[in-house]
Design goal:
The protein has about 325 residues and is of the alpha+beta class. The protein has helices at about 5-15, 30-35, 60-75, 90-95, 115-125, 135-145, 155, 165-175, 200-205, 225-230, 235-240, 255-265, 295-305, 310-320, and strands spanning about 20, 35-45, 45-55, 80, 100-105, 105-110, 150, 180-185, 190-195, 215-220, 230, 250-255, 275-280.
Length: about 325
C-alpha cells in the first residue's frame, strides 16, 4: 500500500493536504505489532497520528482495537488503522468498536476527528470559495502544459482559449490571491511569476481545482461534431494506459459546442443506446492542449479523480506517474 494513495485519498475526499512519512517509533513496539503493520506518521488538522498499515490479511475488529490500545500504551500515539480493502461486515464491526480506519479510494471513518473536522469545514465554508473559476483553472493548466516558464506575460496563457483581456486580468488576480503566482511590473508590462516548478504548482493548486465536467449526456454523434471534439474520461485514459476501452466512447465538449451540436440535430437520450456516446459537457473549453485526439492530461486527472472504479484509479495512478514535467 503506497503512502501517496493515502495522501491522494485524503485530499480528494476531505480537501486536506497531508504528508505520510515513515514513523521511527515503530521499532520500539512489540514484535507482534511490527510483524502485523507498517507504521507511518501523518498530521491532520494540526494533530499528529500514527497510521497502522496492515501488511497481510485482514485482522478482526476486536484485535485491531487491542492493537490500537497497545500502540497508545507503548508510545502515547493515537493510531489510525489502514487497510487495502474491507468487507461491509468488517467495516460495521470496526465502526462498532470505534476503530478509526482508512481504506484508500473507498472509505474512511475518523470518529475522534469529528469535532475538529466539523470546525475545519465550517471555517472553510465561511471563507470565500477556494475553488478557482473555470477560466482561471483552464489558464493555469495551459501554463503547466507549456514548456515551463517561471515568468510569463498573462496573454501567453490564453493563446488557445481566446479569453478576453478582462477574463485574463481576473484570472491573474485570482492566481495571485490563491498564492499560486505573483504579479510584477517589468517596465510598462505586467508579468506573472511562479515561485516553483510546474509539478509543485500543480500539487499546490490541486485542492482548488474542480472537476471540469458540468454534466454528462448520452447522444448519437453527428459525424461533423465528432471530428471536432476530443476523447475524454475512460476513453482517453484507455488510449494512454492498459485500461480496457469503455463500452461507449466518451467525448468532451464545451457548452458552446454542445449548443452547436444540438442545432445539428443531436439531442440527449434518456438512456444509452447501441450507437450512443457519452458526452461530457465541460465548464471550460477542452481544447487546451495542442495535441489532437484526447483532452489534456491534467484535466483528465481532475475529471476522473473521484471515480470509484478501482480499475480506473489504478490506471489513473500509472498515468499520472508517467507525466513528464
Amino acid at each position: 500500500m503506497r503512502h501517496v494513495d493515502i495522501e491522494r485519498y485524503l485530499q480528494d475526499v476531505l480537501g486536506l493536504t497531508a504528508i505520510v512519512k515513515p514513523w521511527a517509533g515503530g521499532t520500539a513496539l512489540p514484535y507482534f505489532l511490527q510483524d502485523a503493520y507498517e507504521f507511518a506518521s501523518i498530521e491532520l488538522i494540526g494533530a499528529p497520528y500514527v497510521l497502522m498499515l496492515e501488511r497481510d490479511k485482514a485482522t478482526s475488529a476486536s484485535k485491531v482495537r487491542k492493537h490500537l490500545d497497545t500502540l497508545a500504551q507503548a508510545s502515547g500515539a493515537v493510531g489510525i488503522y489502514v487497510a487495502a480493502a474491507l468487507s461491509s461486515y468488517d467495516r460495521k464491526r470496526l465502526v462498532g468498536q470505534h476503530v478509526p480506519f482508512i481504506v484508500p479510494g473507498n472509505q474512511l471513518y475518523l470518529p475522534d476527528l469529528g469535532i475538529d473536522l466539523r470546525e475545519y469545514f465550517r471555517q472553510c465554508r465561511e471563507t470565500a470559495d477556494k475553488n478557482l473559476s473555470p477560466a482561471t483553472q483552464a489558464l493555469l493548466i495551459s501554463a503547466l502544459l507549456k514548456p515551463w516558464k517561471a515568468e510569463m506575460h498573462p496573454a501567453e496563457l490564453g493563446e488557445r482559449l481566446s479569453y478576453t483581456t478582462m477574463t485574463l486580468s481576473r484570472a491573474v488576480k485570482e492566481l495571485e490571491h490563491a498564492g499560486l503566482a505573483s504579479v510584477v511590473d517589468v517596465g510598462r508590462a505586467r508579468r506573472l511569476c511562479f515561485d516553483d516548478n510546474a509539478q509543485a504548482i500543480w500539487r499546490r493548486a490541486l485542492p482548488m481545482l474542480r472537476d471540469p465536467v458540468k454534466k454528462s449526456v448520452w447522444a448519437i454523434p453527428d459525424p461533423t461534431v465528432q471530428k471536432q471534439v476530443r476523447l475524454a474520461g475512460e476513453s482517453a485514459l484507455a488510449r494512454a494506459t492498459l485500461l480496457a476501452e469503455p463500452a461507449h466512447p466518451v467525448y468532451a465538449i464545451s457548452a458552446e459546442q454542445w449548443k452547436h451540436a444540438q442545432q445539428r440535430g443531436m439531442c440527449a437520450l434518456p438512456s444509452p443506446e447501441p450507437a450512443a456516446c457519452l458526452w461530457q459537457i465541460w465548464s471550460y473549453n477542452p481544447d487546451i492542449s495542442p495535441l489532437a485526439g484526447s483532452v489534456d492530461p491534467l484535466s483528465l486527472i481532475l475529471s476522473l479523480r473521484n471515480e470509484r472504479d478501482e480499475r480506473v484509479q489504478q490506471a489513473l495512478i500509472k498515468f499520472e506517474e508517467g507525466l513528464t514535467w
